[in-house]
Amino acid sequence: MLSTISHLNPAVTAAAELFTDGRLTDAVLQNVATMRGLPLFIETGAVPTITERAEAAQIELGRASADHRIVTALYAAARRRLGMANQRPAADRRAAQTAAMGALNKARAALRKADARLAAASAALAALAS
């Protein structure tokens, strides 16, 4: 007899049948999933309310905004590093420029990701507001 909650992972249910007398509960399924290292997908049927979704979107927007500020500062530092590398003596200028460009390219890629995350978080919050 299965629990009242719909279990979407048949591997967990099958493994639990081996450990029980046929009566499965959510606690037994969770314990078996933990022992076997299997993911336990439980569909509770609960749908988040609009308020809960708005709060989650607001939190994600705050995190994306903070991440964007940090990555923007790192990008500015990488640009300054390249500027300093360009002013190095001729003997070691090339190596410094190469290292600075590598750091700048990584910072630029991180900034693009942060821009996309911030835009997606803003759009999600705007969609919930409308």
Automatic annotation (TrEMBL):
This is Uncharacterized protein. It comes from Muricoccus vinaceus.
